[in-house]
Amino acid sequence: MDAPIAPSALRHADDGPAYDLISLGLVVFTILLITVWTSHFFRQAPAGLKEMRQMEARVASDPAAMELTTSAACLEAAKWADFNLPSPDGNHLSNEFVSHLKRAIKLEKAERAELRLLLGQGDNKDFDRVAARTELKSEGRARQYARDWYKRRAAWLDACDTRKFEVDVHRELGELLEALSMPEEAAIEFGKIERSLPVIREVHDEDKK
What we know:
This protein is mainly alpha-helical. Helix content is 74%, strand content 0%. It is built from nine helices and no strands. The chain has helices at 7-10, 16-43, 49-59, 71-84, 95-119, 126-137, 141-161, 167-179, 183-208. Helix 4 packs antiparallel against helix 5 (95-119) and helix 8 runs antiparallel to helix 9. The termini are far apart.
C-alpha cells in the first residue's frame, strides 16, 4: 500500500512511448552538441602575435595608427596578453604582457597628473572638476590591477615552490615590480630568493655526493 507510484503511472495516457523517445532524443542531442563544441574549441590554434595585433587595433584610440595612447587601452591589451599568451612552461611572463602593463602604468601616471593640474585651474567647468576629483579619490585602475595581479601571481608561485624553487622566475617578477614602481612587492620577491639560496646550495651539494 505504501509503495511509491511508478513515474510511468503518473503520465498522461497520450504520452506513451513517444514521451520517452522525445526525452531520449533531447538528451542525445545535448550530448552531441556539447561534444562537437568541445572538440572544435580544442582544435583551434592558440592565440599568437597576429591575434595580439588585432586586439590592439580594437582597443586603440586610433586603429589606423595601431598605437595604444591611453592607459585604459594598454591595460586591456595587457589583460588579454596575460590570459592568451602564456609562456610554454607557464612560469615566465610574455613580453607583450610586460610591455603593455608597463606602458599602462606610465600613461596612467601622466593622466592622473593632468587631472591634478585640472583641479588647480579655476576656469574649468564644474563637471570636469568633479569628474577629476572623483577619479583621483581612488587608486588608478592600472595600478590596482597590477597589485591584484601580483597577489595572484605570488600565490601561484608559492604553490609551485613546494615542488621546486625557480630563482629566475622570482627574479623576473621582482624586476618587473621594480619597473612598475612597486618596491615593497619587489622586496618580497627578492627576499624569497635570498632565503632560498642556502637551501638551493645544500640540495646542490647533496646531488654532487
